[in-house]
Amino acid sequence: MAAMTLRAEGTARAEDAWHRYVTPARWPAWSPQIRAVRVAGERIAPGMRGEVVSLFGVRAAFTVESVDDERRRWVWRVRLGPVRLRLRHAVLSRPGGSATTLRIEGPALALAAYALPARWALGRLVRG
């Protein structure tokens, strides 16, 4: 297994960026690689299961492991066929906006393929 950490800063308030994260229906608005999210519920919660549909129709199953609203952190597992990833997200307040970090753990080839769209999405997440 490999790991990488991505970061982005922007002018969005941390509360706004966090709300974008915890509301799956909003994911396609800031994450261009996501076309749809299929999930029962309006807000992420530990144990929540669902499916993300990519721009190209590829479907990935996910399970939310943990959500910490006070610290604005959450962790989920994503499965696409035999590929398994664990993604650890955080949103931080910064003067004039917010920052976000994403630590991805999984096969090195999958991390390399996901890095570019993830960087793009993170930038949009914290954009004001």
TrEMBL record:
The record, for Pfam families, names: Polyketide_cyc2
- In terms of superkingdom, the source organism counts as Bacteria
Kindly provide the name given to this protein in its UniProt entry.
SRPBCC family protein
Species name for this entry? Streptomyces salyersiae
